[in-house]
Specification:
The chain is an all-alpha fold. It is built from two helices and no strands. It has one domain.
Length: about 110
Amino acid sequence: MPTEIDARITPSLHSENVKQLDGYSDDSVPYLGPVMEALDDAYLTLGKLHDARHLASKNQAWTPEQAVLAVSDTAGRQQQRLLSKFDKLSKTLDQQIKSMDEMLTGPLQQ
């Protein structure tokens, strides 16, 4: 099920963009599925951070500065989590590309 559009977040992070890539097909889904999952995670996380910022700004017990710091702390942790996820995904895709390239450029066996 596709992630709903959130106007607060850049559309470039929406996972549906992957389906518009040249060469996207049922055959490429196993390779691009993890990309779509990572983009969905980032997209949903940013939406939740926007929600948290809104709630923090309504908290009358906090000064505006405290609200910013509270959301910033959460955002920093989420950023590190997402960066780690994207880094692992990038390495996996690079390995898959290298493996397929070696397979395609290797000698044919009869």
